[in-house]
Specification:
10 strands; two-stranded antiparallel sheet; 8 helices; Rossmann fold
């Protein structure tokens, strides 16, 4: 599906479908000066309610154009936006279902098939509703994901399997939140931080003078955190 990536190897966004029905689109960002022999970290992006994968892909230049291979996925349900346009959702307050798990894991597998990805440096990054999905996937599959980035989001209700994730090799967590966020109160970020700290996870909380957005300052901190997390977890394997 992404064979042209192997041929071109140029910085840019490559789009594909993971299923014949067209329900699993994927946008892949290939970094600047891509080196096929280097095992890159992989960032898996999950957008917010009413948005689509482009929300994250458009933000990649403020994250890093060189450090990662990135993939943006699309919510599995359609919703009507306030402006009348069609958007996408991961299911609102509902918990991540088997279809979403299959979608995310298939996208990771396809990316690893066509690109050189470090299997122990795969990070989930979610915004708003997507953060809720990132939390659940990261804690459900702690052996598959090195870290979770949750921006302007919340921890989903119900059991999360924190006990199995809270070990030395479990996923680290970066929580970023806008202090003037009118849609997701800052208390949700503080609640998530306290819950994960109490469970024994390696978690960082950063607050920003912003609203409900992917602000550049937030993304720069995500870039530094991911790189530091790779160093911390895999010191025997140089980044």
């Amino acid at each position: 599906m992404l064979e042209h990536v192997r041929i071109l190897r140029e910085e840019g966004v490559y789009r594909s479908q993971l299923d014949e029905a067209g329900r699993m689109p994927m946008s892949l960002f290939l970094p600047q000066a891509y080196e096929p022999r280097y095992p890159y970290p992989l960032m898996v992006f999950l957008h917010g309610h009413g948005e689509q994968e482009r929300q994250w892909i458009d933000a990649v230049p403020n994250l890093s154009r060189r450090n990662y291979i990135c993939i943006g996925l699309r919510g599995v349900r359609t919703v009507q936006r306030p402006d009348g346009e069609t958007g996408y959702s991961w299911g609102g307050v509902r918990r991540c279902d088997a279809m979403i798990e299959e979608y995310v894991l298939a996208a990771v597998q396809e990316t690893m098939r066509v690109c050189h990805v470090h299997s122990e440096r795969i990070f989930l990054a979610g915004f708003c509703e997507g953060a809720s999905v990132a939390y659940q996937l990261g804690f459900s599959f702690p052996d598959k994901f090195a870290g979770i980035v949750a921006l302007n989001g919340w921890v989903p209700p119900g059991p999360l399997g924190l006990k199995q994730a809270a070990h030395e090799d479990g996923p680290g967590v970066f929580i970023g939140h806008g202090m003037q966020n009118p849609r997701v109160p800052i208390e949700r970020a503080r609640e998530a931080y306290q819950l994960l700290m109490a469970a024994g996870l390696n978690v960082s909380l950063r607050l920003y003078p912003s609203e409900h957005s992917l602000c550049p300052m937030m993304l720069r901190d995500v870039d530094r955190w991911v790189i530091n997390e790779c160093h911390r977890r895999f010191e025997s394997s140089p980044f």
